[in-house]
Amino acid sequence: MRILIVEDEPSLARQLRQTLEGAGYAVDSAEDGEEGQFLGETESYDAVILDLGLPEVDGLTVLDRWRKAGHKMPVLVLTARDSWSDKVAGLDAGADDYLAKPFQSEELIARLRALIRRASGNASSELVAGDVRLDSRSGRVTLAGEPVKLTAQEYKLLSYLMHHKGKVVSRTELIEHIYDQDFDRDSNTIEVFITRIRKKLGADLITTIRGLGYSLDG
Ligand code: CA
Fold first, then answer.
1. CATH code of 16's domain
2. Residue 12, domain extent
3. For site-directed labelling of 26, which of 3, 80, 108, 155 has its Cα 20 to 30 A away?
4. 71-115 confidence digits (pLDDT tens)
5. Please, are residues 163 and 122 in contact by the beta-carbon 8 Å criterion?
6. How far is the CA of 155 from the centre of ligand 1 (A)?
7. Same domain, yes or no, for 113 and 183?
8. What is the spatial distance between Cα 106 and Cα 112, in angstroms, rounded to a whole number?
9. Number of other CB atoms surrounding residue 166 within 10 Å
10. Residues 157, 81 share a domain
11. Cα 66 to averaged position of ligand 1 atoms, centre (Å)
12. Distance, CA 87 to ligand 1 centroid (Å)?
């Protein structure tokens, strides 16, 4: 899952990035509204964390432009403490959730997880496919009840496929959603990760659909 952070306060932006990367997300960041708007329009994100007070273009305007242009990714707005008018304006402009500063990183992560889950149509934080279970809260994966150790990249890939169970996901889509902007994106590595996941969790879990991509069923 790939997240965009639009936040102009360097220390908070850094802290957010560390927290999200620690939780297994690929992260891009923008320091002003103009750059943030551009990234949101041109890259694929599973969720966006958007500060409202931003240089160049303010957060509400950015959000309003995204929505008018048809970009539907979940957006969590960061508001100043106790500013109810900010919250209302944010929700009206198309925000999916908000969090008032200062906040606990655990709460931010929990809200993001919920946003991503809802956007992909999953009600529970535990995703199931056959004998495989992935708990998006703890990051644990089990096969027939037994814990299975996955690397960070394997987990990201499996998590994306499990969030989109039953759909055909192209290699390009996978690359866009599991790597950040600066990552050296080599589409051959996807096949390597798929092979490793099959070895750990069973050959039948992920089906290769020739010329189209992959599909996880069950
Ligand atoms: Ca700000």
1. 3.40.50.2300
2. 2-119
3. 80
4. 999 999 998 877 888 888 888 889 999 999 999 999 999 999 999
5. yes
6. 33
7. no
8. 10
9. 10
10. no
11. 19
12. 15
